[in-house]
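Sorry, can you check?
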Amino acid sequence: MDSRKGKVLLVTSRGTGRWIVPKGWPMPGRSLADAAKQEAWEEAGVRGKVDQDAVGTYHYDKQQDRGFAIPVEVHVFVLEVDGLVDEFPEDSQRKRRWYSPERAAELVAETGLKKLLRALPAKAGKQA
């Protein structure tokens, strides 16, 4: 989310093409926030400053190629966007689009993420 503009950048997942927030796994030597910033770059071509405090968490079951799912807890961070680039590591694999938090909540599948996105306008206002 870009707290200055009050918008959320969603990307499509590589597997199903559903709308998601950029996310990834923890990275050795990086805080969770800095790992999220790296994933935002790789998945959406975003540059900016990440807030080190998560605005919330949600849970979902990540489907594996072998036909089973694993439970995952996702920490969500606000990233103040300085710019977007057209060429980034996953540009040929994903679409990206800005939405209001309410519209983004309508488009994502995960119940916990829907709730978190709907709460973002109030949280963003507190941080600004």
